[in-house]
Design a protein that fits this description.
With 164 residues, the chain is α+β, with helices and mostly antiparallel strands. It has three helices and ten strands, in the order E-E-H-H-E-E-E-E-H-E-E-E-E.
């Protein structure tokens, strides 16, 4: 069952991640690199401070998307090849926790967008030549698949930044 959406204030958060321009069909190839990020951090003795996430930066469903897989950390780290450091922005977010298999996230995202639209909330998003550029649109993976093999019980937090 989904947790009802709410508006929350989030602090800025350092993270380490990998980003790429991909088609919608290849989005999973970036998310599949999350274990690589954990390995990179572990090799340097850096502990994550939150669950891994998937972030949509620029969305053009007909062409390409700029997406990123990342892991929150206590402080920024030095970039190394594909792995880079960044800061998730602070601000007001519309947040919802969804329980279900990854393929059900599209419906959950639509429900969050509808909820916000019914309240006339405005997203931190702008239209660019490359597509919709989001200030911060996250899927945070709260369930460890190694601990919960039943995908219908996986929990994912959706957090989309609202305009100031």
């Amino acid at each position: 069952m989904d947790v009802a959406p709410e508006i929350t204030q989030r602090a800025a958060q350092p993270y380490t991640g990998i980003s790429a321009w991909v088609t919608m069909a290849a989005v999973g190839s970036v998310a599949d690199r999350i274990p690589e990020i954990f390995g990179w951090l572990g090799a340097r003795g850096i502990a994550p401070v939150g669950p891994p996430f998937f972030r949509y930066h620029v969305i053009d469903m007909e062409r390409q998307l700029l997406v990123e897989a990342g892991v929150p950390v206590a402080s920024a780290v030095e970039d190394d090849g594909d792995i880079r450091s960044g800061i998730l922005p602070a601000g007001r977010f519309a947040v919802m926790t969804h329980t279900g298999a990854p393929q059900t996230l599209i419906a959950a995202t639509s429900a969050l967008l509808d909820w916000a639209g019914a309240r006339e909330l405005v997203w931190d998003v702008s239209q660019t030549d490359a597509g919709e550029k989001w200030g911060c649109r996250l899927e945070s993976y709260l369930t460890d698949p190694a601990q919960q093999p039943d995908m219908s019980k996986w929990q994912t937090e959706l957090a989309f930044r609202l305009a100031d």
